[in-house]
Batch of 4 targets.
Target 1
Amino acid sequence: MLIGSANRASAQESQRPAPTNVEYFQYGVGVALEKLASGGDVCPAHAKTPCILGSGGGLALRMGYRSRGPFYVGGAYEFIRMDSANLLRLAILQQLRAEARYYLDVGNRLTPYAGLGFGAAVYGNEWHASTGGPTVSAGLGLEFQVTQSTVIGGSLNYRGFLLHHFADSTGQARADRYLGFGLAHTIGFELTLELRDPLARW
């Protein structure tokens, strides 16, 4: 009985994730989807042309520092091919964000977290910038530890964009409300694969 109990305890220990007493350089890639929640001032109700900012998908590249505690801080670059209702040949939304996560570590391989981000976004045709401005995001995610050095995850995020005034190819004025800026909102979903490299202790 004692041997059986010891074997079960050993099996349970082997299934638990590695302790978070090591600092990591964490980096990876994500498949990102952006669903337009509201075109807002970028797609004004009185416009005679369709909304130039739709939904789309793309990739996110990310790197940062994972502390021994519940925090991650880092940066991300994301580019999304958006639906522009044929007003742009190849509409690309680019974002460069600083990000932070707070992990609710309960000692399992599956760990939930809350995230915040802020940065800048540009939108235009074929990697050019027709408009740009600050962006903020907030969301929730789950991270599953496959091995000590590999994690996969998913997150759902709200993103707000304050874009500068511009006119599209038809001459329609857009994003011209708040001192020459306009709001737009999206809901983002991302599937991620990230790697961890332990950092040497000082």
Target 2
Amino acid sequence: MLFDLNSYYIEPIKTQDAWNVCDFIVSNEDRLKRYFPKTLEQNLTPDLSNIFVEKKVKQFQKKEEFLFTLKERKTNQLAGLIYIKEIDSNKKQGEFAYCIGYPFEGKGLTSKSIKTLTEFAFKELNLKTLQIIVHKDNFASVKVAENCGFIWKKTLKKEFTPPGELPLNMELYELYNEIDP
């Protein structure tokens, strides 16, 4: 399964991605430490990344969580990671989480990726509601949610606690699959 974005492509995480994931995480450590602390701590060395990627591949196969890589076509460089997580099959609901590397920000790649994977989540995973949970000061992430048609629903009080900080209020955005199959 490959999703074409012209000069970039999205594909499910593969065991061969471990080195690239480690390199991506370490290269973007400053931007990931606040909102992706668990992903960061699980990928600080190549050995840790091997364990992380193997786990994510298994979760993907079991349809528990879906981690996708966004890569530049020309170089196969990892540009970003996109999760579909917190899958609730009873509610038919899932949550997006995403990060983009420094050299790739501001190109609309995250919005294109979320739009593409929204279609996948609705059609292939049969989800009815997709969520994005962001901090109001993470302007780029708020813009992605809005660009992709997600609607602000409410503030989630003390929803997330970054390392070494007090709990933060987070903003909940949702998008609904209006088309019943």
Target 3
Amino acid sequence: MDVELDGKIVTAHCPNSGSMKSLIEEGNVVYLTKSDNPNRKLKYTAEIMQLKDGTLACINTQLPNYLVEEGIRKGKIKEISGDIRREVKYGEENSRIDLLINDNIFVEVKNVTLAETNLPSVAQFPDAKTTRGAKHLRELSKEAKKGNKAYNFYVVNRTDCKTFKIAEHIDPDYEKESLTAAKAGVKILVYNTRIEIKDNNVLIEIDKRLDQYK
């Protein structure tokens, strides 16, 4: 991602494999972190975007796993509790579960930053076709059928959304897998985040549960 910094253009690493639809627009503000690692090719990482209306969106897709883990440990996520392990191998399709709790609660975490102009306060996922996301739903379905608890956890990581829905117009196959997973017993959890920036200090944390769009 090319960003203007102190009058110069720098190329920053963008830890996001999605399209970032509804976010990429010239003139938006990008908040960067800088690495002092001499072996890194790109010294800067794009972390947060500020849209022209003031909306903040966290574009680092590596962060939500930590936010959910912290939220569970602090008791902010009432539906889940227990001992947590991260990135545990499981399933039949060479998968790793984002969070495994007490060896029987499987939690797959997704970062959500899409909100389109026709539904401006509705967060949507995915923002591009995702065969990987569909695979995760299949794996969760199998665990639910075994009697384990399985959650697809959507972290709405932008500050202007009040509800959530699957973006079936972007990836109808993902929607079908979501419906199949729900029938198998996979639960959907949706929480938003609180994002605050003050004096170059950033606070991002799990905030409250959101309803699904109807």
Target 4
Amino acid sequence: MARMSDFSAAEQKHHLDKIRDFPDFGATPWMEGPPLAQRRVAIVATAGLHLRGDRPFDSGSADYRVIPGDATDADLVMSHVSVNFDRSGFQEDLNVVFPLQRLRELAAEGVVGSVAAIHYSFMGATQMRALEGKARELAGLLKKDRVDAVLLSPV
């Protein structure tokens, strides 16, 4: 795992500037909703994941890739561009960055109502402000799939 002390002063500043750019949403839920056992859940990750054969992520990509709910570990590839990103966890167990198997188990146990038909992955090594347009687009897709809860997997 990379530590801030491993980076040059310029890289440290770059990463700290990205953190300062995060909006503060507070602790209040954006909206009320049904119990978790009745919710339809999708995963949105920033792990740079995509299906084999899909276009890999480029440096600074602010778009996302679609991941079908029936995708298997073997179907997914990581093209995260950050050289500081440790891929060893992903290589051992996809659920570390994209817990689709765990989400399916929770649905089978009745902890969550259902698993969305489609999930999404961004490439997280990009400027937060650049993601807003695609995030709004994605919100519309999630709504269309009747998703009312999202498991965010920031990587």
